[in-house]
Amino acid sequence: MTLREISKTEAARYMGVRGVPDSQTAELLDKYEPIVRNSLRPAYVYREAEVELRADGVYLSGLGVPLKGKSIRGLLADCSRAIVMAATVSAEADRLISRVSVSDMAGALAVDCLCSAAIEQVCDLAEKEIFSQTKAKNRTMRFSPGYGDLSIDVQEELLRYLNAGRRIGLTCGESCMLMPTKSVTAIIGISDSPVREQKSGCDICSMRESCSFRNSGECRRN
Predict the structure, then answer these.
(1) Range in 1-15, 83-97, 110-124, 190-204 the model is least confident about
(2) Is the Cβ–Cβ distance between 3 and 40 less than 8 Å?
(3) In a domain, 99, yes or no
(4) Can you list the pairs that 73-78 forms with residues at least 24 positions away whose Cβ atoms lie under 8 Å?
(5) 173 in a domain, yes or no?
(6) pLDDT at 222
């Protein structure tokens, strides 16, 4: 997978910029965008599963634990299949952030936010590639552990299910945070019939109480 130019507008939003970035911020993003883009090694893996809704949770064929919560049940209520995916921009993101922070803290923030924008691009590209090969009349939004009431604790099981550690070097620690940090796991439901409208934005986000985007009225998921 080859990254296109990383969205500097998106990166600026992650930096807390409202509206047009000032000249100093724009210069930082212009300086570091090509460095970030050429340093990262994006990769993803996915697996298609059958979906079964039971009283104690949602079961995906081959996954060792049920997915619990109203959010994931609502997402997959109309779906007979699902895609489980994991994506990363590689450990080079963490190394680059650390390296730049030694001499340029403002630059390190720009790099961090460019890497955040890059993983969103990777997920979008991955989804496009997956569904160019996977028959799907209708599909849901991407839904990750930590959204709604889907516990982040399921992260490790999803990585094991995808063999993501061996295949793309993606693991998680005791706190269930992904390593490398600029990585994502997600579930996408597939249905032959139209899927019901899904909630998005602040209402389903586990970070809604502390999110600076929400407090400023600029949440990217709204």
Answers:
(1) 190-204
(2) yes
(3) yes
(4) 74/196, 74/198, 74/199, 75/140, 75/141, 75/143, 75/187, 75/189, 75/198, 76/51, 76/140, 76/187, 76/189, 77/53, 77/196, 78/138, 78/189, 78/191, 78/193, 78/194, 78/195, 78/196
(5) yes
(6) 38
Domain residue limits at 62: 8-195
Mean pLDDT of the chain: 90
For 147, the 3-state DSSP assignment is strand
Q: How many domains does the chain have?
A: 1
Answer for the pair 125, 216: CB distance below 8 angstroms, yes or no: no
Domain containing 184 — which CATH number? Answer: 3.40.109.40
Rounded Cα–Cα distance for residues 164 and 135 (Å): 23
Task: Determine the 3-state secondary structure of 30 from DSSP.
Answer: helix
218 pLDDT tier (thresholds 50, 70, 90): very low
pLDDT given at position 132: 94
Which one has a higher pLDDT value, 76 or 193?
A: 76
Strands (E), the chain: 43-54, 57-60, 81-88, 138-139, 171-172, 178-179, 183-191
Taking the model in full, what pTM does it have?
0.87
Q: Judge contact between 46 and 142, C-beta under 8 A.
A: no
